[in-house]
Design brief:
mainly alpha, about 70% helix
């Protein structure tokens, strides 16, 4: 993958995803392991919120969602190359990343739909446990935080126009103001 035309808006959106995903809050307060896999999963989690917004927006003209995907995976590829991986290793790892991405996005989407349609958090809870906590049982307060945080950000984005969200860089709620219940 090579991202030829850099979209300034997409770059800002992606930088916001990276910034929030690196927040110490997730690692200290929510007891996440600070490693590559967890960071990858937090990036996917935050990107999902934007992709879910676009899925429900049904704006056929908007290219932001696709451009964000392209930019994100171009960045993943560049990071692998900077770590010293060669072409064959990069290609193999990128296939793993893309497969993981689509699997996680599909599960988050099903879980978010179930929760929004009939209030059932079961699938969303299990998806968060499987992906963010790697299947290790965690206190329900941590998992519930992620569910509430996801819903709060989806609602925040939904209550604004696409133009407002793009202009604001799809800025997430400030997690420093949130509490784990």
């Amino acid at each position: 993958m090579f991202f030829k035309k850099e979209n300034k808006q997409v770059k800002i959106i992606y930088q916001n995803i990276i910034k929030i995903s690196r927040s110490k809050f997730f690692y200290l307060d929510l007891k996440l392991n600070d490693n590559f896999e967890t960071r990858f999963d937090l990036i996917i989690f935050h990107a999902f919120i934007i992709f879910f917004y676009y899925k429900n927006l049904n704006n056929e003209k908007s290219k932001i969602s696709q451009d964000l995907f392209d930019f994100m995976f171009s960045d993943f590829e560049n990071n692998l190359r900077e770590m010293g991986f060669g072409d064959i290793a990069v290609n193999k790892k990128m296939k793993v990343f893309i497969t993981a991405f689509y699997g996680r996005i599909a599960q988050y989407s099903k879980g978010a739909d179930m929760y929004r349609i009939n209030g059932d958090k079961t699938l969303l809870r299990q998806t968060i446990l499987n992906n963010i906590y790697k299947g290790k049982e965690k206190s329900s307060q941590y998992v519930n935080f992620f569910i509430d945080y996801m819903e709060e950000n989806i609602n925040q984005f939904t209550n604004k126009s696409e133009e407002e969200n793009i202009e604001n860089g799809f800025r997430y709620n400030n997690i420093k103001n949130l509490k784990v219940k």
